[in-house]
Amino acid sequence: MLFSWPRRHLGAFAVVAACAACSASSSPDDGGGNTTQDYAIRTQAIDKVDLLLAVDNSFSMGDKEAILADAIPDLLARLLTPRCVNDEGAPTGASADAMGKCVGGKPEFAPIHDLHVGIVSSSLGTFADICPRTEPENDDRGHLLARVARGQPAALSKPSNFLTWLPETQENQGKRPVDGATTEPSVEKLTQDLSNLVRGVGNHGCGFEAQLESMYRFLVQPDPYATAEREGDSTVLRGIDSDILRQRRDFLRPDSIVAVIMLTDENEASLDPRALAGRAWQYQSSAHVKGGTSPCATHPNDPACTTCFLATASSRPECAAALGDEADPPALRFFDMKRRFGVDARYPIERYVRGLSQVRIPNRDGEHPGDALAYLGDANCSNPLFARDLPSSASDTSQLCNLPRGPRTPDMVFFTLIGGVPWQLLTTEPGRFTNNTGSLKNTLDEADWKRILGADPFHYDFNGLDPHMRESITKREGLPAPDDALPREWDTRGQDLQYACTYPLATPKDCSASPDGCECTQQSDSSICDPTRPSMQVRGKAYPSVNALAVAKALGPQGVVASACPRTMDVNRPEYGYRPAIEALVSHMKSAFGPEQCLPTALAPRENGTVDCRLLELLPAGEQATACDPAKGLEQPEASALTRFRENQKAANADAASLALPVCALKQLLSADLVQGSCESSPAPGWCYVTRASQPAAKCERSIRFSTGGKPAPGTVVELQCTPQAI
Predict the structure, then answer these.
(1) Which comes out higher in pLDDT, residue 427 or 523?
(2) Using N-to-C axis directions, what is the helix angle for 446-453 and 546-554, rounded to 10°?
(3) Which of 174, 490, 617, 682 qualifies as a FRET site for 515, CA 20 to 30 Å off?
(4) From which residue to which does the signal peptide run (predicted)?
């Protein structure tokens, strides 16, 4: 079992956007000392999905990968043949066909006819002698995987290594698959091939799991290193991994929805290799390390708590020698790291939150400017996830940080964690661990999160934390024994952590006959082993996945959480395995598939129905002759609004050509101009603010609508600027 703490608080990086058709940012002072809220508005429906499965491939993951493989048909069916709904949006009990036709009602969203699916594992090797990169499957490098079994590659086209669904439909006319990608001929073949790839991830990877880091390396890192070498006592990262650049360029479309599904049963255990002046590799070494200064044991937040590796602490008596076997089992090196070692040598959680939500992020130089000992994260670089014209090689490294801004906005990125949290904490009866009959929630509230993470686990404030989620090598207080999540606590002998949850295996495993992936090979009173036959594993388990849970929380409505411990193993029930995770993800994503322009916060309408907002458009190239044409409802924007718009463009790394295009304000229509509560049928060009109170069948609680004559042309950059009084 491996575990680690993040180093810094992440509250400042909470994502503002809360809808699938807009993203929000705070722009500078509005002139009255307040901050104006700006929303990027999409102008057309999205018809592409790029789906990345990030799968932990450590020793204990075989049973969970099989459950995920069983969920693949449900996942693809929900995307490719959506449910039929009536005029009120209620399911009819039927599904649309692959062309989006319903016998009764209408599809809840248009079927996805342009899909990329790829897989990365959690194995990135280490910077020391544990999990050496030279051994197979210890280091999958953050590349897209193409194997169906250990040592058996999948028959995928190289070098892209992902599956493509691009049926011959009207909207796909003129499209061609990416060179080197495998295009599936049928839904059945796509389902089978993806299920095989999930099973092929395997459970022979590195035990220092890098679930978040592997995802980040593939999707986000502007300059992924090619090699990591040791020079003296420090780790040096060299070169650029052109294979990742090529795969990323082929896999990511700039205008797609990106959905990450992460499956893991443990916490993140990857290092920031440049921490401690490149000496963080010692925490992945089999040799014992030094601990922290004495204040760490009781007050890890105290500034006097620091690592004995630093010269400023080396003269202290407690820093004279390395820790022994009992205090420093390497398998627990990342558990309770700040208290035990005086430092967290990992990347902070903000790295991953920013990577999935912000258009500017640090490259390697920005992470540790001036060779800083700790991660600083200067946002000096374009985020490839929100860029277009991605590079396919590192021939010109100067361009890696200057990519033009693409049309993807943060609300088009979804992160689903299937991890170490009891499903009982995710229901309408949270905390009831015996005979819980509550419905699973698609969205968690603050009270739920407090039970899952505590008040501030990164600063050792566990107020409100449910005992199941407390990482501990000893038995925890406050747990009922037994309950449906845990049969009991167990004696870890200081070599393992207590579990967050367990579940019955579909088929018990006799570890004496087949030890591969089996966890009852030694005499143990672990609650996943049969107490009368200690070598028989009868349950699966998951440890608290604190870091990935914190990322999901910070991403707000773009984050989805499900339990790696299934509610039921009965395949005939809708709650079987990871079906609830799939349902929750699609429920969050589906509003992004339509043209309705959602807003994350309510606005305050005036008596005439307008709100205190301005909607600005950057006209596409070729529209200059009719710039700000009153016949189209357009007018010259106020100088302050125009300045703010241009500043947002620059912050989003817009190219020079875009910065030179004209910007116009679109007229906001009055309530007298609306037809049945909306402006969509209005003859006047313009826009309006609509709530579900006036449009009961609307997919969004609140949205921006356009009249036929006011709808921006495809490709138009549209921004809504609202004053604080309007929100």
Answers:
(1) 427
(2) 160
(3) 490
(4) 1-20
Q: Which residues contact 232 (CB under 8 A, 6 or more apart)?
A: none
CA atoms of 307 and 292, how far apart (whole Å): 4
Helix (H) / strand (E) containing 360: strand 360-361
Q: At which residue do the structure tokens 């449906």 appear? A: 484
Return the pLDDT at 725.
Answer: 60
| Residue 683 one-letter amino acid | P
Please give the average per-residue pLDDT across 51-68, as a whole number: 96
> Can you tell me whether residue 568 is helix, strand or coil?
strand
Contact 389, 404 (CB under 8 A): yes
**Considering only CA atoms, which of 415, 349, 367 is closest in space to residue 225?**
367
Is the Cα torsion angle 61, 66, 69, 70 positive or negative in sign? Answer: negative
Q: Which two tokens stand for residue 446?
A: 């603050």
Q: In the beta sheet, which residues pair with residue 616?
A: 665, 719
Other Cβ atoms closer than 10 A to 566:
27
* Integer Cα distance of 276 and 124 in angstroms: 20
Element of type H or E holding 640 = helix 639-651
- Three-state secondary structure readout of 32-88: CCCEEEEEEECCCCCCCEEEEEEECCCHHHHHHHHHHHHHHHHHHHHHHCCEEECCC
Q: Average pLDDT in the 658-669 region?
A: 91
CA distance 554 to 462: 18
Report the SS3 class of residue 571.
coil
Tokens representing 610 are: 């307008």
Give me the residue spans of the domains in the chain.
45-272+347-415, 505-542, 602-726
CA distance 127 to 667: 58
**Contact present, 366 and 292 (Cβ < 8 Å):** no
Which two tokens mark 7?
């180093």
Residue for token digits 């870890």?
492
Cβ-proximal residues to 189 (8 Å cutoff; 6+ apart), any chain: none
CB of 68 closer than 8 Å to CB of 580: no
Q: Specify the range with the lowest mean pLDDT, choosing from 546-560, 619-633, 668-682, 698-712.
A: 619-633
Q: For residues 685 and 663, give the distance between their C-alpha atoms in angstroms, rounded to a whole number.
A: 17
CA distance 124 to 111: 35
Inter-residue contact 77 to 95 (CB < 8 Å): yes
Q: Taking Cα atoms as reference points, which of 438, 455, 426, 699 lies closest to residue 560? A: 426
State the residue for tokens 């037994």: 482
pTM for the model stands at 0.88
Phi-psi region of 435 (alpha: psi -120 to 50; beta: other; left: phi over 0): left
C-alpha radius of gyration, the chain, whole number = 26
| pLDDT confidence of residue 29 | 44
Q: Tell me the backbone φ, ψ of residue 127, rounded to 5 degrees.
A: -105, 15
For the chain, what's the residue count? Answer: 727
SS (H, E, C) 572-620: CCCCECCHHHHHHHHHHHHHHHCCCEECCCCCCCCCCCCCCEEEEEECC
Q: In what order do the strands lie in the sheet with 49-55?
A: 182-183, 163-165, 115-121, 49-55, 257-263, 413-419, 559-563
Secondary structure of 410-433 as H, E, C letters: HHHEEEEEEECCCHHHHECCCCCC
Helix (H, G, I), strand (E, B) or coil at 658: helix
Query: How remote is the C-alpha of 538 from its chain's centroid?
Result: 31
Strands in 83-85's sheet, in edge-to-edge order, are 91-95, 83-85, 106-107
Please name the helix (run of DSSP H) or strand (run of DSSP E) that holds residue 120, with its range, or none: strand 115-121
284 vs 280: CA distance, rounded Å: 8
DSSP state of 701: S
How high is the pLDDT of residue 262? 98
